[in-house]
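Putative membrane-associated Zn-dependent protease
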Amino acid sequence: MSGTGISIALWLLIIVVATFWHELGHYWAARAQGVGVKSFSIGMGPILVRWRSGGTEWRLSALPIGGYVEIDGMAPTVSERGELRAPTTGYAGLGAPGKIAILLAGPLFNWILAIALLAGNYAAQGVVTPLNDRARVASVAPNSEAQRLGLREGDVIVAINGRDIPESYTVDGQPRPGFRQVQDALALDGPKTFTVERDGRRREVSFNWQARENGERRLLGIGYGEDRKVEQVAVPAAIAAAARTSVAVIPQAVGAFAGLFQRMLTLDLQGNGEVVGPIGTVGIVGQAAQAGVWTVVGIMALINLSLALFNLLPIPGLDGGRIFLVLVQALLRRPLTFQQENFINLTGFALVMLLMLFVVFSDVARFF
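Tokens:
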């Protein structure tokens, strides 16, 4: 199998596991309250294999791009005349707390799985703390200016032109991690001095820089990113660190989703790449596979966390939107009509589908 084939297969495996675990949360919460589950499908589309167990028909479907559960009382029933009727039993017969428990369980299961995966990563690899005020050189291109200057892989740039790199700084009102100042410095002509730390010692690397050559942007020849501090921890500390990480990323994730909606409204297909679709994710998974199994585990944790947070957005059709409708009806002390609720959910589902199509088109635009 080619490298691309392996990347796609690994991506599909991650998606199937994340979706199965999500739907298992809904299934467990329903059964725990005595609500029946008609079917549980791993995959979508035509059914390949089916069997019955515990009152549920379990299915393995042809398209490994998702899954679903059919919970009694969530979908309308069909009368003998073919008319749709609002359900009154099962899920529909539960109070607001019971309904919210079923809806919340899917994202919660993804969240728990993300914490477990991160904890395993931290216990095996250590807790990594990014140091944005230090730029670590990850690679040096052969026969490059960087190699001529004596820069080596593992060097850490701690200051530029005699000024320490800050933890962060602002450009055009947008915050940036401090290590990006290396890029900014190399975008300007003139003498440069990098203070480089190597084996606990510091040295000055001075050079006269011309940012463009023959009309083309000139490259120093280094690959770099933020420096990192690695702390080896026991399992309990790894779990605690994973839980903190899962909470700390919420503002960034919400901001990324908000930016995605803004880009969709303005038809900005390029964007900043904070949210990627299937094509972009396959590439990320492929790179992670080359880096090692624990990098893949980390990506899997982030995908589960993203799935949890996305499903909790108050968009009709998503779990968060359904929870919002349950709360609205509880506050109004009267249910919405079946037609009203169905219209709201279908509208939200259409919006989500448009969003997914936009993300795919954005992936294609960035790829080409």
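The mean pLDDT is 84.
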